[in-house]
Amino acid sequence: MRETTDILISGGGVAGLTAAAAFGAAGFRVTCVDPAPPVTGAEEDGADLRTTAFLQPARAVLEAAGLWERLAPHAAALKVMRIVDAGGEAPEPRIVKDFDAAEIGEEPFGWNFPNWLLRRETVARIAELPNVSFRPGVATARVLTRTDAALVTLSDGTTVSARLLVAADGRASPVREAAGIGVKNTRYGQKALAFAVTHPIPHDNVSTEIHRTGGPFTLVPLPDRDGRPCSAIVWMETGPEVLRLAALPVAEFEAEMLARSAGLFGPLTLVTRRSVWPIISQIADRFEAERIALLAEAAHVVPPIGAQGLNMSLADLACLVELAKAAPDRLGERAMLLAYHRRRWPEVKARVTGIDLLNRTSMLGARPLRDLRAGALNALYSLAPVRRTLMKAGLGMR
């Protein structure tokens, strides 16, 4: 059986589903496939318990896709980014610096959401769009491109002819591999634990990143849970240490959390399971091939620092949608895809390099180097123009 469509999206994670909603809302015929059905409940097996902070520029993309009105009731605003250095002799705060969104505008830095909820709301939005077909449980099996179309064979035997094939199929992207695009990969010997906690001291919409060794311990605001303040935590450490922490009985794990959080929020109560994620940096050699555009983790992967990962992906999407809408009759043609690569690759490369440096700094174990890190934080923060420039750069604002 053979079908035709404007855009085939390979990958139904948060980025792929958002792309399906965005292109569908823009009037294109879209088919989105993913080998696994999306897990849309927090308690279900395989639920992604990580959270995503959508930064200011992402809101316009979500509004245009018809997603923002669905997501807004579940948002936890991020008004302040707090950096805490606890790299002294004892695990306690020695430097605390607040980057306040009010310094650069009226909006918060962004809004935080659980990843499983993003999938639930995006799947519901796609169901409203008659020109979008989402097929969970169906994989991309084979890719053949020609100058006028990508011919994609799906795992159910269907062949789809698409003017544009969007690879949103993850860091080990089969579509990227089929296109012969290489990647540069950096490993840190780190893993991350992701989970949620409640705590007695309110977060006051402050995202708090605590640095000691091994990587940051980051608490990101979530809406209250059972009447108690709640935060999502990403705890980065060396691989063996994360595996040790993940296996601890809950009471022992909570004691370790209290120490690593420098006691800033009081005793932390674990309210979800603990999931473990590998930490790498990765960038594809190019973001396009004949009739193919790479999106999100198929194009780039970064450590979870500064909420950059999915926001870079939405910037990819915004660029692709803009180019598609500017010349719909030339969708997927060489000139469009080269324009996409030229606009996104240098920007992404700069961010991957910057986040790599921040991550290596956060991993420092030797005390004199930790002291240097604290001094650099103090110096950068103390200069108001530098502080405001850093905040705008983090948001992707010019």
TrEMBL record:
<keyword id="KW-0274">FAD</keyword>
<protein>
    <submittedName>
        <fullName>UbiH/UbiF family hydroxylase</fullName>
    </submittedName>
</protein>
<feature type="domain" description="FAD-binding">
    <location>
        <begin position="5"/>
        <end position="351"/>
    </location>
</feature>
<dbReference type="InterPro" id="IPR010971">
    <property type="entry name" value="UbiH/COQ6"/>
</dbReference>
<dbReference type="InterPro" id="IPR051205">
    <property type="entry name" value="UbiH/COQ6_monooxygenase"/>
</dbReference>
<comment type="pathway">
    <text>Cofactor biosynthesis; ubiquinone biosynthesis.</text>
</comment>
<keyword id="KW-0560">Oxidoreductase</keyword>
<dbReference type="InterPro" id="IPR002938">
    <property type="entry name" value="FAD-bd"/>
</dbReference>
<comment type="similarity">
    <text>Belongs to the UbiH/COQ6 family.</text>
</comment>
<keyword id="KW-0285">Flavoprotein</keyword>
<keyword id="KW-0503">Monooxygenase</keyword>
<dbReference type="InterPro" id="IPR036188">
    <property type="entry name" value="FAD/NAD-bd_sf"/>
</dbReference>
<dbReference type="Pfam" id="PF01494">
    <property type="entry name" value="FAD_binding_3"/>
</dbReference>
